[in-house]
Amino acid sequence: MSRFGVLYRAEHRAALFAHSAQVDVLEIVAEHFLDLTAEQRDELDVLRAHFDVTVHALATSIGSSDGVDGRYLARIAALVDYVRPLWWSDHLAMTHACGVELGAFAPLSRTEETVAIVARNVAAVRDAVPGRFALENPATAFLVPSDTLDAAAYLARIAAAADCELILDLENLHADAWNVGTDAGAVVAAIPAERVCEVHLAGGRRTRDGYVDAHDGPVPERTWALCRAFCRRCVPPLTLLEREAALPPLSNLLDELDAARAAAA
Ligand SMILES: [Fe+2]
After folding, report:
1. Domain containing 31: what range?
2. What is the pLDDT of residues 57-76, one digit of tens each?
3. Which residue of 12, 63, 140, 179 has the lowest C-beta tally within 10 Å?
4. How far is the CA of 5 from the centre of ligand 1 (A)?
């Protein structure tokens, strides 16, 4: 069964309910609901009543060699227990190191050492938070010189060693092709498709210095091409439009969702 959804933004709430038949799944950002206040619970109750939900977190820091933060995971566990999402996820990156908050997704070295760290941290995540867990490829600003694995092999090794699912963000991959020379087509061709529970689509923009994965524009043709290529291998269980900023009317996103459905047909 394949589903199609969008990143939830409160600005779209009324339009989403008006068009709920065209949206199967809402992705909610964990950090927007971590306090589980009465107001947040009310909002989650209404969303859950009309849509399936996934929870997307930002600060698990799955690549930190000093481990994952148990207090953060306890808050995620409470949210997951309340929402009962299809699965929850975070990024294959590092957001803290030795107690220092980095304020961004720091890229990890693509090495067997990182694979072992991530596998250990995913095991700790599983102990703390029940349910399915997936890791997403973030866009990377630079490659770490000590890399020994290419992008495709790295994702495959992570999924196998951690025995976890993957979110394939095709726009992040598109940005990596511009900025660090990733062979995006090779990743789409080689990623273990059976591990991919979700594909993300979004758009960014070119600047003089490269490509910004701002998720603030329509899905560009190169990202659509990656989507079609992946769909020729397999139809992902969930395809999600991840528009984060410069929100257009929901109808624009619904048109893109129809295009995603056509790519998967
Ligand atoms: Fe994404």
Report:
1. 3-264
2. 999 999 999 999 999 999 99
3. 179
4. 12
